[in-house]
Each structure stands twice: as structure tokens, then as C-alpha cells.
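User: C-alpha cells for this complex, please. No commentary.
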Amino acid sequence: MTTYYDKHPKFHVAVDCIIFGFNKDGLSLLLLKRNMEPFMGEWSLMGGFVQTGESVDDAAKRVLKEYTGLDQVYMKQVGAFGDVNREPDERVISVAYYALININDYDKQLVEEHNGYWAGINDLPPLLFDHLQMVEQARELMKKKASREPIGFNLLPELFTLTQLQNLYEAIYGCTIDKRNFRKKVADMDFIEQTEFIDKTSSRRGARLYKFNDKTYSKSPKFRL
Amino acid sequence: MTTYYDKHPKFHVAVDCIIFGFNKDGLSLLLLKRNMEPFMGEWSLMGGFVQTGESVDDAAKRVLKEYTGLDQVYMKQVGAFGDVNREPDERVISVAYYALININDYDKQLVEEHNGYWAGINDLPPLLFDHLQMVEQARELMKKKASREPIGFNLLPELFTLTQLQNLYEAIYGCTIDKRNFRKKVADMDFIEQTEFIDKTSSRRGARLYKFNDKTYSKSPKFRL
DNA sequence: TAATTGAAGTGTAAGCTGTACACTTTCGTG
DNA sequence: CACGAAAGTGTACAGCTTACACTTCAATTA
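Assistant:
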């Protein structure tokens, strides 16, 4: 029987992940130098095809896990990219997601097997298809979100110094921030808690380590950095 | 020949439009009371399937034109909705868009033929599938955008009074705004220009009509309402 | 024609937020 | 024990946001 749906064409649907990491060198993306056809040797985002019986969101989670071993990662959809010729050989509609991960905490062997490498956000290689456009949109979206919600902590270790936190926001915003003003704001947020620990790796004097307290935040979710 | 792509499933891809309009009764959405199967008699957004050789953005524009006769409308993507069972009979991945139109300027006969009706944004009927979720996301997105970019004018006639403009923003934000503070802000924006015309329909005294000047705006795009 | 009605239009003061700005402390190294 | 390098700290000014109430105008009605 011919149904209502049969009249309409079907398409390959893919997901692509913009995976952000942060360290002392700033923000980076985890990219793939493709080690298989098609497009062997080219740089791209980590992606894959949506499968039957799998939601698009789940496909993005699966792909992230396949490439990094990570579960339960902070991910948000960037949007659908549906230009007819965005991939040259075949019509593929792709849904982009960005992910924020701790750059020290992923399955390095898996990444190596897939030929994954970190690239500085301001120093990206040429990317396949419309992946650069996806990155730019993701970055913009993440920046807006990070200014109003405490998502930046996903990019930091559990314990972090205020200097690290400031460096993170400087990297996200792409500008410098006054240290005293920054610390004044942080001091006003009860959910950024001082710990008893001192980080001795970055200075002789040592820097106080802080942590983000999710429960305290949810009681009074006022955030602005 | 079997290609790389053949291994992967294909899906119906649809677009759905959240069409905003504004008049003295506030914000409304243009909805469809379906006059054909499947789901005859149910309320839904205006939507359609992406066709071969047509970008997803173009599909949204086409659908909007099919239902309203309108071209060159302000439209933004809300995102992809890809849950496996979001439509009960068939797997369909849908990309939602919102559109801002002047509620007095569309093809009323076309809308009537399709069984389209305006419904107050705070008084929506039950909608098919995940359409309510799409509406909520669209509304949130539009609200954020409207606070930082002068997109609200797409919902107003070319000439409008300050009271209309304020009512619009009150409807978008869902709160009341102080009249003097609102007008102070408007007065600071050179691209909201007084005209020589007076609207006599809404009061005995008459109210000054204003217009939005796109060119002046692009010279100094500072907007905050 | 005077009174009424209803929306349009107008200014100021106080509090809060954002920003600019420079020196002292600490501790390990040489 | 002097030096280097990052951590840590407070104040003053400007600009922005907010709260708040009466007058003006023109058509309608008494």
C-alpha cells in the first residue's frame, strides 16, 4: 500500500561533533585526520550517520563515545545543516552538536586509533565540507551560553584555580578580563567554592583551588561571567 | 557499486514553521487544523517534507510560501527534532524554523484553503507530535534574539506607534514595561525614526507614528530593548 | 461650549553594575 | 638572601537601570 509518506524522498542524516577542550594553551577542538576513504587525509569533525531506531541526539552521543570513550558529556545541538551540495558525492543532511570535555579525561588510545588530534581554536586546519561553518556557529552559541550558565566548568578539572577560570573565560570571549573585577564577580557566586587545597604547579607561591558546587548553584542559579 | 554511503539508512526529513504574528491582542501563531489525512482535524504547525535538490532552508521557505503566499520573510532555524517516535507512524526527522510576519499582510485565501487559523500564543490548542516543544523553543529563541537585534519590526506594520512597539515587547517578554523608561531607550536609538504621520485609530488625541530605518541601524547597530 | 474621557507624552532621583586602575604578598630558586 | 613570578587584594567614577505621577491633547457628550 502506498502511504502518505511514500511520496517523499529520504536522506542520509549525519551528526557532527564540535568537541571543545581547554588547557593552558587555550581552547582546542578535537579533530579527525581521516584515515579512511572517502576523504582520506583530510581534516574533519568527528561524525557519523544516524541509524534506524536511534534518535539524532543519541547518534551524537554514540559518535562522541565511539571516538573518545566518553559518556554523559555536556552536549548541545547547534543546528541542522542542509545545503544540497554540502557534501560533494551524496546528499547528506547533518546535525551539529558541540561538546565540552575535560581535555585530560578521555580515552587517548581510542582517539589515536581514529587519528584524532587537538587543534587550537584559532589555528584550525582547513576542514571538509561546511565543518568550519559548524565550528563558528558552535563557538558563538557556546560563548553566549557560557556567559549566562555555568557550563565552562565542564572544560576544567574538578579543582581549578581562579587564574585557570579566568583564562578559560578569556579564551571563550576572545578578550582579556581585569583580574580584580573577575575575582569580585566570582566571590559573589556562592557556588564557586574555595577548597582547602593549593595548586603548586603553576607558581612558587601556590594558588588556591576552587570547585563548582552544582547543588548550591541550583538553589540560586544566578550566574554572569 | 556499493559506496560508503549505502551502508547507512535514510530518513524522511521535514520542516515545520512556527509563524508569529502580532496585533492588539498580542502574539499569535498561524496554525493548521488539518483538513487531510493523516491526522485530519488535529492542530499542527505548517510543515512539509524536504525534497530532492532542495536545501532544508529552502524547504522551509517553500512551505511558508505555500501556506501564506509570503516571500522574503524573516526566518531562523530553531533546530532539528529527531526522536525516534516523534511521529507515530513513520520515522521523520524534522527541522523547525520560526518566522515573523506582519499579521495583516499574507494571502488570506491560501490560508483559508489550508484551514489555517491564528491562535493566541498563550492559548494554543493541543498540537500534534512534538510541535508544542518546537513552539516553546522557538519562543525562547525569538525572545533572546529580539532583545539584542531589531527583529521585532518584522511583526509590525511599516509605521507604528510607540505604544504598539511597547505592547509588542511586553508580549514577547511576557511582562510589563515602564512607559517612560521604554521611551527613553527608544529615543536613544536613531534608527527608530519619528515620521510626520499621526495614528488616529487608537485614541482621540492621536499618536505619533514611527518607522524603523534599516540603513541607519546598520551604521551603528546598537540595540537593546 | 464646557466638561468628560482615554490614551499620549514627559523628567528626575537613587541605587546598582561595570570598569579602570597598581601595589603587596608569597615562596621557591639561584 | 636577593630575585623572579604568579597570587592576591580595594576604591572611585561613570553609566545604566529602575521606580515613580502628572499634564497634554482632541474628540465626544452633556
